[in-house]
Design brief:
Blueprint: H1 2-5, H2 12-38, H3 44-65, H4 67-80, E1 84-86, E2 92-94, H5 95-114, H6 126-142, H7 155-178, H8 182-204, H9 206-215, H10 223-239, H11 245-265, H12 274-287, H13 289-313, H14 315-332, H15 345-348, H16 366-397, H17 404-424, H18 441-460, E3 461-462, E4 470-471
Antiparallel strand pairs: 1-2, 3-4
């Protein structure tokens, strides 16, 4: 009896813990009972809603418990969670988008409740990013006007196109302001490199590749996946001297294996190897300026020859893209300042003949697409934002010493330039709803998340002239 009485809570704190334990057991038991005995007998739609509710509740509890790691979880959600909610179109709301949206909502909710948790620390890329989103909203508004004798895109597609801008900016901001110490940045980088390594191994081990083909959505392995995988692996291998030599050698093996798959096995897909190659070249130029300048002068001739061969080897694609760009520039003349609104231009293209055909088409170029949707204002804000991210990274290199942060900044600078190159090849940083759709955000969000990490680094690093790097870790409940 004495042994039994020893388990009876005596203090108020013990009673509270016992009450919480009982509530948790009841919730877990009820959830299991519903899933086992009730869900199988419900219609399919209701089954799906219950599954989504359970997953969403679990994700919310995770984010409330450790909001920083919730940002990290967006990466595997984008890359290896095949779950999607249909939207009645050819694209759906994937797990990465849903988790990002939930993270943003909880961030806003915590800001309302705690008041101070959403205090912004100003950073140079923030203003052009805000103006880019504002321009997209204004373009959406003016996009409701009748520019041509045919209707524009359905309102559902226009809203989807607008949310591409909003969620992409949200990914940047949530990384910039919710990360409070090095641990989430290290986890983000490590988780992404680990997933990328498993994916690359799948090319060499067919059984694993078959399994991954059922988990990894094609939208997750676009050009930006390869660009950021190589950029971050290269920077951590070369510039993070704090890593054990075995890990750095492993990253070098990952680089070689990835370039072999991208360049040798998939040479015809230029987006798989050209932007990553540019990303690596950018980091080398920044780190070793004098040697790089000599190499650029020597390699200029061969590089131009390779570029000519690439264009000649895909002459039809090059010709159609040039023609598409010419037609879209004519369409954009209707409103060159704010463009025609998200998704609209796709419905106006049949009014113009492209190589003798009157069909719907998209630009296959991020910058012409951005110009068509948001006008000169939008593309100006986009390049201004990219410039400010690059400038911030270059300034941070003066304030960080060798180690993870140094390698991370180099990786983001290389990834940024590689991302800009990928956009010119028709690979989406802001996916177009009538091309790859929201599915493309599985890969594009990687760029926004890791670029947002630069602002987090600038908040974590404090230095004064003549002093070494110091890391400032804020209390968990304050921003």
């Amino acid at each position: 009896m004495g042994t039994f009485l020893s388990y009876i809570p005596r203090t108020g704190e013990q009673r509270d813990r016992a009450r919480i334990f009982v509530i948790r057991c009841l919730i877990i038991g009820s959830t299991i009972g519903i899933c086992v005995y009730v869900v199988p007998h419900l219609p399919r739609l209701q089954q799906l809603l219950i599954v989504v509710a359970v997953i969403g509740l679990g994700a919310m509890m995770l984010l409330l418990h450790d909001s920083d790691m919730g940002v990290v979880a967006i990466i595997p959600a984008c890359l290896v969670v095949p779950f999607e909610i249909g939207t009645g179109s050819n694209t759906g709301l994937n797990a990465g988008i849903l988790l990002l949206f939930l993270t943003l909502c909880l961030w806003v909710f915590q800001g309302i409740v705690r008041h101070k948790s959403m205090r912004f620390v100003w950073s140079r890329p923030i203003l052009p990013l805000q103006l880019l989103v504002l321009t997209a909203v204004l373009a959406f508004a003016v996009g409701q006007m009748h520019w041509f004798p045919v209707s524009g895109a359905p309102i559902r597609a226009q809203i989807g196109g607008l949310f591409v801008f909003i969620l992409s900016a949200g990914a940047f901001l949530v990384t910039a302001y919710k990360i409070r110490d090095l641990r989430p940045l290290q986890w983000m980088t490590g988780v992404f490199l680990a997933i990328g390594a498993v994916f690359i191994i799948g090319y060499y081990v067919p059984p694993l590749g078959t399994i991954l083909s059922h988990l990894v959505d094609p939208g997750a392995t676009g050009s930006l996946f390869w660009t950021w995988l190589i950029a971050l692996a290269f920077s951590q291998a070369l510039f993070n001297w704090q890593l054990p030599i075995s890990v750095r050698l492993g990253l070098c093996c990952l680089l070689i294996a990835t370039f072999y798959v991208a360049f040798i096995q998939n040479y015809d897909w230029k987006s798989g190897w050209l932007p990553p190659l540019v990303a690596v070249a950018t980091m080398v130029v920044i780190r070793w300026k004098k040697i790089s300048l000599f190499a650029v002068v020597i390699g200029m001739g061969p590089a131009l020859g390779v570029l000519s061969n690439l264009i000649a080897g895909d002459q039809y694609s090059y010709m159609t893209r040039v023609e598409a760009g010419r037609i879209l520039l004519e369409i954009i003349k209707k409103d060159p300042i704010l463009g025609l609104g998200p998704a609209n231009y796709y419905w106006y293209t049949p009014l113009y003949s492209i190589l003798g055909w009157n069909v719907q088409f998209n630009s296959h170029n991020q910058y012409i697409d951005l110009l068509a949707q948001t006008g000169i204002s939008g593309i100006f804000c986009y390049f201004w934002f990219a410039f400010e991210v690059g400038w911030l990274g270059l300034q941070l290199l003066k304030r960080v010493s060798g180690g993870f942060l140094d390698a991370y900044v180099y990786g983001v600078l290389g990834g940024l330039v590689g991302t800009l190159v990928a956009g010119s090849l028709g690979d989406w940083v802001l996916p177009f709803v009538y091309n790859i759709g929201l599915r493309g955000m599985r890969a594009s969000l990687l760029a926004w998340l890791f670029m947002g990490g630069l602002v987090a680094v600038s908040r974590l690093v404090s230095s004064t002239p003549g002093e070494a790097l110091s890391i400032k870790i804020e209390p968990a409940g304050q921003y």
